[in-house]
Design goal:
The protein contains four helices and five strands; from the N terminus they run H-H-H-H-E-E-E-E-E. It is α+β, with helices and mostly antiparallel strands. Helix 2 packs across helix 4. The termini are far apart.
Length: about 160
C-alpha cells in the first residue's frame, strides 16, 4: 500500500472512464457522459480547494467536514452540475424537494415538494447502508467511494 503525503492527497485520483456501464439506460435524457462531466467537475473543484487550503496550512476540505456533511455537499454539487451538461433536467428549486433533479419544464418554476418524476441524488462513503427518504418509486443516483467502479442509478 502506497503512502501519500498530505500534498499528494490534495490531488484527486482521476475518474476512471471505463468504470461506467456504456449500456446503461438513464432517465430524462441524462447520459453516462453527463455524469462523468459532472464528476470530473467535482474532482477539479475538490483538488483546487484542497490545494489552496494546503498552501495556507489548513486541512483538506474532506477532512474538516463531518462525513455526512461532505456526502451532502457531494450530492448537492452533482445536483447543480448535471443540468449544466444535460439541459433536459433541472435542480428542484423547492427547499428539500424530492427528487433532487426534475425533468426540465414539467413542473411550474422547476419546483415541487414531492414527485415521482425525476432523479434523487445520494452520495455516501459507504457502499451500502444509504440514508434518505422512505423507499419511493423514483430514479436514484447513488454516488459512492472510489472502490465502486461507478455510480449506480436504479429505479
Amino acid at each position: 500500500m502506497a503512502t501519500f503525503t498530505e500534498q499528494q492527497a490534495c490531488i484527486p485520483e482521476p475518474l476512471n472512464p471505463h468504470g461506467f456501464n456504456p449500456k446503461a439506460k438513464l432517465p430524462h435524457g441524462v447520459t453516462i457522459e453527463h455524469i462523468q462531466f459532472a464528476m470530473n467537475d467535482f474532482l477539479d473543484f475538490l483538488g483546487f480547494l484542497d490545494q489552496q487550503l494546503y498552501t495556507k496550512g489548513i486541512p483538506r476540505f474532506e477532512k474538516m467536514l463531518m462525513p455526512a456533511n461532505f456526502s451532502s455537499m457531494v450530492g448537492e454539487f452533482m445536483t447543480v452540475t448535471i443540468p449544466k451538461y444535460c439541459p433536459s433536467v433541472v435542480k428542484n428549486k423547492y427547499h428539500n424537494g424530492h427528487p433532487d433533479l426534475l425533468p426540465a419544464g414539467v413542473f411550474a418554476d422547476d419546483s415541487i415538494l414531492h414527485a415521482a418524476k425525476g432523479i434523487e441524488i445520494k452520495a455516501s462513503r459507504y457502499l451500502r447502508g444509504w440514508q434518505g427518504h422512505n423507499p419511493e418509486n423514483v430514479w436514484l443516483a447513488e454516488l459512492s467511494p472510489p472502490v465502486s467502479p461507478s455510480p449506480v442509478i436504479k429505479r
